[in-house]
Amino acid sequence: MGHHHHHLGAADGDRRVAQAIAVNLGLTVAEFVGGVLAGSLALIADALHNLSDAISLIIAFAARRIARRPADPSMTFGYGRAEVVAALINYTTLILLAVYLGWQGVLRLINPEPVEGWIVVAIAGLALVVDVATALLTFRLSRESVNIRAAFLHNLADALGSVAVIFAGTLILLYDWRLLDPAVTLLIAGYILWMSVAEIGGVIRILMLGSPPDLDGAAVVQALAKAEGVQDVHNVHLWLVQEHEPGLDAHVALVPGRWGDADAIKAQLKQMLASRFGITHCTLDMECSRHACDGAQLFGHRAAERPDHSPKKPRPT
User: Fold this and answer.
1) Which of 140, 153, 162, 248 could cross-link with 127 by S-S, CB 3.0 to 4.6 Å?
2) Could you give the CA distance from residue 185 to residue 164 in angstroms, rounded to a whole number?
């Protein structure tokens, strides 16, 4: 199960992110000024969300540059996870922002204030255009990076928020329904919170060295255990070295009499892992049947009782 990605060039990708940063910062200033003049909490909320998007893109831009640095003695796996760390920062900030906006919305529901509907509609209309433009700039990059994907989803959320603000401003103009402004603020806050909580789990999974979500770890172990010349597989570690690079580390015990074929069996196993599962970063510790680990657990590295569903093959007496 390989992974196929059509990557933009580094320079082209950086240029798109820089353009997205510029338009988001310009929109943030316009929305904040308009929100203060109109007395619209929803417009100020959208401005703060756009500011968070701009900051998110700035972090993403810096992380992209850092991630391209080669491995060195102090960072032997390289710097690719800089983008994952940036995504964690961005989502955590968004969760805090959503809580703050929700609190402000509740306060405004209790004590509603007048809102200038025309300013709200005009600025939100501009925001919608800019949000769509920014989303288009980052769409292709979003398929390559969890960090840029976060920024892309933020801009989609902004576009929906702008539509909601336009709707609320129009009804305020027509019917003076002032409670719609804090209600829309609560909707925007709720959507930001839902989106961030849904996405942050995958980022934490990578940083916690969890197995790739689109890879069946049990199937990988079964494929190794059933290969010709293999008696047992244990002490398996399966993780993401980088966002799109699965890694595997395992001990492979050979059947009696096959130690002379260890190199050939290892090469066949690596070829199988690459072709079937897209695993090209792997370390296989080959063991002869006589000196194989006793009592080793299937996953992890500590000695432990093997669970009943282990694919271990019986050793001949």
Assistant:
1) 162
2) 9
